[in-house]
Amino acid sequence: MNSFRFYNPTQIIFGEGTADTVGQQLASVGAKSVLLIYGGGSIKKSGLYDRVIKQLQEIGAKVVELPGVEPNPRVSTVRKGIELCRSENVDFILAVGGGSVIDAAKAVAVGVPYEGDVWDFLMRKAEIRGALPLGAVLTLSATGSEMNGSAVITDWEHQLKKAFGSIYAYPKFSILDPTLTYTVPADQTVNGAVDMMSHVFEQYFSLTTDTPLQERLCESILQTVIENAELALKEPTNYAARANIMLCGTYALNGGMISVGMQNDWATHMIEHEVSAIYDIAHAAGLAILFPNWMKYVYRERIDRFVQFAVRVWGVDPNGKSDEEIALAGIQATRDYFSRIGAPARLADLGIGAEHLDQMAKETVRFHPVGSFKKLAEQDVRAILEMSL
Amino acid sequence: MNSFRFYNPTQIIFGEGTADTVGQQLASVGAKSVLLIYGGGSIKKSGLYDRVIKQLQEIGAKVVELPGVEPNPRVSTVRKGIELCRSENVDFILAVGGGSVIDAAKAVAVGVPYEGDVWDFLMRKAEIRGALPLGAVLTLSATGSEMNGSAVITDWEHQLKKAFGSIYAYPKFSILDPTLTYTVPADQTVNGAVDMMSHVFEQYFSLTTDTPLQERLCESILQTVIENAELALKEPTNYAARANIMLCGTYALNGGMISVGMQNDWATHMIEHEVSAIYDIAHAAGLAILFPNWMKYVYRERIDRFVQFAVRVWGVDPNGKSDEEIALAGIQATRDYFSRIGAPARLADLGIGAEHLDQMAKETVRFHPVGSFKKLAEQDVRAILEMSL
């Protein structure tokens, strides 16, 4: 186990009906002028928008709105939000939506007190030194953004998709009401499951040794997602299934709680970012395609971890099998599961061909090789992309 | 899963050598006048006292000392600490020790800004509304006090042992350096393992349904403690074993992270508190004796949880066995494990007879029946104590 620091100051308010406590929560942090950030309007259809606005009115807060945050949130939208905060003297940012909306809210939050352009943070040209406080009402179980300080933002014009992380960007509170996800369509439920499983993969497949607790915490989340995603797809209003998945999504990426002291990988995420910087596909769709191929490409680096994965997570019977066979059975089980819940298996399923593989591979390693489980150079990334066609 | 709130603002600094960052940490929170709280002097023998003092001097902090905190920390000592803080204008409390020292520090911290007597908080006569900030350097893996807001304090004169919990009592930071536990003697290593396992038991054996992730998180800690405690006993300076145990102790009771949305039990702790309020025994020694008997007394309330415990935690082979047999095999495995690592099995091992059973049973339920997995009235508590003789 490596040395580490862990600090996660986000308060989680979880349960049916907690969406109706957002006013109370805002009042308790003294919010007077609130920027309400949301996405494409599903919160209007579901009635959540009205419920939130009512509460904001009841506590007498001024409300400024930034609607229309994109599924891959764009820096142009973030810049609009920063301008609004400044011109309207906003003192608190409330994100109502999924990971994209919360990510955009974080970028606005860190951008407001900064004199330069917010994109500097994404390009590592400036250090984040403060932020407006923010909170979230989560409507989609997936990214874990509700309990961490990270965000992914896209500069669509320049086909760049970059991430930042800061202790200042942790939400003060996040409201997790599983009933808000009853209306999440099947494809987004699938994407959410793939996304949280992928977050765990990035942490679990690690070369760090002597981390038995962390490995088990990772496996716990994977097993629970696997059990509950199919149930949620079959019964979208099954509270237990939705609640279990929501908790898994949050714990999968809450500042690294499940993988403290472990080196993380994140190569697959970086490859996927380059795919979805060119093609406007769902992040998780890309991950579902890439991850089994990444696994196949790297598993020999540490076959014991893949054997453990196969046996503990997928219940592969190790009897009479070589390590190689067990590891490959686990990878195949992952692939089969993704297919079974309806995730895409090949880039071709999304209409993506070989045209831009070189560009994607090159951009992935623009600054340096990616990954730590196996360091991937340009030709490695290209090979994985090719396996994914 | 029940609704819940989770908030844990303690920063963890974990790893070899982190004890030498305490000065830096204190400087970053602006500590100028520090109350240094510690126990019976083991930190002087180990050299840790000198290392800490040196760092306090380097940052130019004034140091006030409160040595001699008891293994079951006493309210009389806490009162001394409160007086010292007031008379010496202390602005930060630093606990260097195990759970008892940190618990005492918390009680001092919440007592300073309160006009009445600190014991009021233990007797639920007053509400905690603030505290001096505190931090900790942990020297013993056991209670989890380093990452939660709870403390147990004893009024020795009146044979009362009571607990409080408050968001104000969370340490600002806790330094977890596994090498500091290399010199922990075998009996205290055993007590630590029993203590953290008991904390998990109190959360895991719950009537709340639909909590598959939480159950697995609990099992993950139990399995990791079981694997690593024997290794640490055999090889006291095995870094991996000490680090794994330390992390387990912290995660076992860090504000309820592993059991969010689950009703907890805590009956066994309450019974034990009454035993150690009369006999000055180690808390964990009492728990090791009581827990297998509590399990035997209550397992039929929800036999499926005990079956799961036996199979997943102890590897009991369920084939050809009834649920009853599987559950009992798990309880026996717990008992055997405690014996194997050297924990006491019977009250008689500690020289405790039947003399005060009535008093202990009566005091345990003074305010109301205890526990939630099975509500225990006075005669239930007495029966468990009798089974433990």
Question: Can you put this structure into words, describing what you see?
Answer:
Chains A, B: Keywords: Oxidoreductase. Chains A, B: InterPro entries: ADH_Fe/GldA (IPR001670), ADH_Fe_C (IPR056798), ADH_Fe_CS (IPR018211), BDH-like (IPR044731). Two copies of one chain form a homodimer. Chain A is α/β, with parallel strands linked by helices. Chain A has two domains: 170 residues, Rossmann fold (3-Layer(aba) Sandwich); 203 residues, Dehydroquinate synthase-like - alpha domain (Dehydroquinate synthase-like, alpha domain). In chain A, helix 1 packs parallel to helix 3 and helix 8 packs across helix 12. The model of chain A has no long low-confidence stretch (mean pLDDT 97). The interface between A and B is large, with 42 and 42 residues. Strand 1 of chain A pairs antiparallel with strand 1 of chain B, so a sheet runs across the interface.
Cross-sheet strand order for the largest sheet of chain A: 1-8-5-4-2-3
Radius of gyration of CA atoms of chain A, rounded to a whole number: 20 Å
Assembly type: homodimer
Strand content of the residues of chain A, in percent? Answer: 5-15%
Number of strands of chain A: 8
The CATH superfamily name of the largest domain in chain A is Dehydroquinate synthase-like - alpha domain
Largest interface: A-B, 42 and 42 residues
What fraction, in percent, of the residue positions of chain A are helical?
40-55%
Spans of chain A with pLDDT under 50 lasting ≥5 residues?
Answer: none
List keywords for this structure.
alpha/beta, Rossmann fold, 389 residues, 48% helix, 8 strands, homodimer, globular, Dehydroquinate synthase-like, alpha domain
